[in-house]
Amino acid sequence: MNQLTIGKYIAQKRKEKNLTQIQLAERLNISNKTISKWENGNCMPDYSVIESLCQELSITIAELMDGEDAKQNSIRVYDEAQMMDLLKRTQQLEKQKNILFGILLIMLGIRLFVISRTVMIVNFFSGLLFGAAIVIVLAGGYCMIYHIAKN
To answer: What is this structure's pTM?
Structure first.
């Protein structure tokens, strides 16, 4: 799956239907900026709008994922329900990965805090570890909150 190829294909099909980004966005009940992000290859359509998008553009999910019209004699190994399930799972895993990253940063920050309080070899070094611990915990918290709020 190449986001840029898929984006160009969405733009091509939208233009073939004589639709503007705003018109397509209204039909899908989303922002026209979202359509722009898809067409520029900055992100992929969410699994919740893929079926509606394909209906509006008169294409199949397989064609959307390939970024091109299906060949006349092409054979598909997966059906559309399996492709939608795969897309849904992929997007869920991506969200979970970001939350896990935030948790790991917080755990690392706590560990550095504990080390800074137990190893009092040099006050400067201890203070440096303490400062790094605070920054890492804050970064982890931001990462988690940002991705949770985004959902």
So the answer is: 0.57
